[in-house]
Amino acid sequence: RSLEMDLRSADIASQFEAHFQPILSVQSGILCGFEALMRWRHPSRGMVSPMEFIPIAEETGQIDRLGRWMLHEACRQAASWPDPLMVAINVSPVQFRSGGLLEVIEDALRLSGLAPERLEIEITESVILDDSAANLALLRQLRERGVRIALDDFGTGYSSLHYLKQFPFNRLKIDRSFVREIDNSPESLAIVRAIIGLGASLGIDTTAEGVETAAQLERLRAEQCGELQGFLFSPPVASENVAGIIGAYF
Ligand code: G
Ligand code: G
Ligand code: MN
Ligand code: NA
Questions:
Q1: Among all ligands shown, which has an atom nearest to the Cα of 91?
Q2: Which in 12, 85, 180, 227 has the greatest CB count within 10 A?
């Protein structure tokens, strides 16, 4: 059987899980919230990476039901965390294309009772490239409802700066390829510094992704980066381990 067939017939609620990676303030070390990351606990293959199943789900139309489940599940769990901890959820460009995304997000908020201000939607630049007018309108409607919008993998795209003019993002997530080299590549350090400065002058929060070493943390602190996530603090964890992280860092 192919992964595609398994995905099509999978009972999502019993095979899929939302895992959560903590996002912390660089200056204070206090927990700000979590990024939700999907996991597939396949009955015979074991854990299948989203790098494998998300592209298949996008190509076969399964991303809509997977993505809807994820929005509901992650909002439901986040509603049980102490206020104002937030949850960041990745949304695929294909979910924008399919229509109905605004209603799906509104339903997830209403059913969970999560305040819209505690939800952040992470998109990549392809969302804006795809269908500029319609997707930008949808992003604006989400912002009007109080939902925050983050631009993921910032710096890796074709014309990242152009998007900042088109839409008032709440957050830039500095791609981990720059963070990884911050201590041994003057170019990477210069790019990270420029993104943080850009965020500061535009009033946009900045999160460094993929922080793995104390030296990277010290550097990001010196550069006044806002938030960070990475293996230095924690990989994505299953939901039963979230309370322990909240207890330790919040
Ligand atoms: O969790 P991990 O680092 O293995 O994720 C690999 C990739 O899968 C990342 O690019 C991440 O954004 C993506 N991903 C993880 N969970 C989701 C999800 O719920 N929806 C979408 N669209 N992408 C996800
Ligand atoms: O594309 P996106 O930024 O959503 O992807 C998040 C992915 O990054 C997840 O798959 C997560 O497992 C991974 N990740 C999180 N922290 C680290 C880290 O410190 N190092 C590396 N290499 N990957 C990380
Ligand atoms: Mn992300
Ligand atoms: Na990213």
A1: 1
A2: 227
Q: Helices in the chain by DSSP H: which ranges?
A: 3-9, 12-15, 50-60, 63-78, 93-97, 101-112, 126-130, 132-144, 160-166, 176-180, 186-202, 214-222, 242-249
State the distance from the centre of ligand 1 to the C-alpha of 186, rounded, in angstroms: 29
How far is the CA of 160 from the CAs of 5, 6, 126, 174, in angstroms?
Answer: 36, 36, 11, 11
Q: Which atom of ligand 2 is nearest to the CA of 229?
A: 16
Residues with Cβ within 8 Å of 182's Cβ and at least 6 positions away in sequence, in order, are 188, 189, 192, 216, 219, 220
Q: Give domain limits for the chain.
A: 3-249
The binding-site residues of ligand 2, defined as CB within 6 angstroms of any ligand atom, are: 21, 37, 90, 152-153, 176, 209-212, 229-231, 236
Determine if the pTM surpasses 0.95: yes
Q: Which of 15, 21, 38, 87 to mutate to test the pocket of ligand 1 (most atoms within 8 A of CB)?
A: 38
Place domain 3-249 in its CATH homologous superfamily: EAL domain (3.20.20.450)
Q: How many CB atoms lie within 10 A of CB 100?
A: 11
35 alpha carbon to ligand 1 midpoint, in Å?
10
Identify the residues whose C-beta falls under 6 Å from ligand 1.
37-38, 49-51, 54, 70, 90-92, 236
Q: In the numeric block, which tokens belong to residue 61?
A: 């139309």
**215-225 burial, b for 16+ CB within 10 Å, e for fewer?**
ebbebbeebeb
